[in-house]
Design brief:
Blueprint: H1 2-21, E1 36-40, E2 49-54, H2 57-68, H3 71-76, E3 79-84, H4 88-96, E4 102-105, H5 107-112, H6 115-118, E5 121-127, E6 130-136, H7 145-149, E7 152-156, H8 162-174, E8 183-187, H9 190-198, E9 204-208, E10 222-229, E11 233-237, H10 243-257, H11 263-266, E12 268-270, E13 272-273, E14 280-281
Helix pairs in contact: 2-10
């Protein structure tokens, strides 16, 4: 009995010592994965929040700060929160549930979730149309069944990517090629695809062509998959006829595009005629 009592008292003392020596307030666990940024407008008492989503951390942070400094945004919101996510599932979450007020997305994703009719997302700024290619480092790709069967092929591991996933797989289907018979390596980004090709780990990739590619590959060794693919667009949720906000967002997006390093993203085009007594959707917009 004395031994049991002693052990019980020892357990109590140990617990008390632990509580005294450790302060919960001092325990801080670092955020392992940062996925958002937030800033305050001048309307600090306003609890309304403008939510932005894009795939780029850099763009999310830059745009969030620009919108917080905008007078029109400050008249309607107390803060702006920018989210970013690199996975297709992240875009699905924000588009499918209408979480974002402003989102950079592909038109096929918006159409798949009927987001434009469900949440009245309206295109604000778009980028120019582009062409999808098969790109090789040693020869011009041929669109034949026999050509692909003995090639190591690099594709993008994003089911919603048109140039890097959807279109090449459609082409293989048209050529009556079973995907199980192909040597496919999946990459997490277009840059990774290019690295695979440059390092000789694949023979051919499916992607778009950009100016800087000529430093690593020959333009003679590309074959078009599809032309005039609609580029990504910025969409604003317009559940109210909030044309002041629409024009302010459009102006900030156009201004931000001028500072982008890639020429493709510098060529942003607006969808709306602002600066007049009435704000109207332009009749014809040259997309990305």
């Amino acid at each position: 009995m004395l031994i049991v009592t002693f052990l019980f008292l020892l357990l109590v003392v140990t617990w008390v010592c632990g509580q005294v020596s450790v302060y919960n307030d001092d325990l801080h666990f670092p955020v392992m994965i940062e996925t958002s940024t937030e800033c305050q407008t001048t309307a600090t008492s306003n609890k309304g929040q403008l939510i932005v989503f894009t795939q780029s951390k850099k763009i999310a942070k830059l745009l969030t700060q620009k919108l917080c400094s905008d007078n029109v945004v400050a008249k309607q919101y107390g803060s702006v929160k920018g989210y970013w996510g690199y996975r297709t599932a992240d875009s699905f979450e924000f588009v499918g549930k209408g979480i974002a007020d402003l989102i950079l997305a592909k038109s096929n994703i918006m159409a798949a979730f009927k987001a434009e009719s469900t949440y009245n997302y309206q295109p604000v700024v778009g980028f120019s149309n582009y062409t999808a290619f098969f790109i090789s480092s040693k020869e011009k790709p041929r669109i034949t069944k026999q050509y692909f069967l003995d090639k190591r092929i690099g594709l993008l591991d994003y089911p919603t990517s048109r140039s890097g996933h959807i279109l090449p797989k459609q082409m293989f289907k048209e050529l009556d090629i079973n995907l199980a018979n192909l040597k496919i390596t999946y990459a997490s980004s277009h840059n990774e695809l290019r690295d695979l090709l440059a390092d000789g780990k694949v023979d051919i990739i499916a992607s778009f062509w950009k100016e800087s590619d000529e430093k690593r590959f020959s333009k003679n060794y590309i074959t078009a998959l599809s032309n005039n693919i609609t580029g990504t667009r910025w969409y604003l949720k317009m559940q109210q006829n909030n044309t002041d906000l629409l024009c302010a967002v459009q102006a900030n997006l156009l201004d931000m595009s001028k500072d982008q390093s890639l020429h493709y993203y510098q060529n942003a085009q607006s969808f709306w005629s602002c600066g007049t007594s009435s704000v109207n959707l332009k009749e014809e917009v040259s997309d990305e």
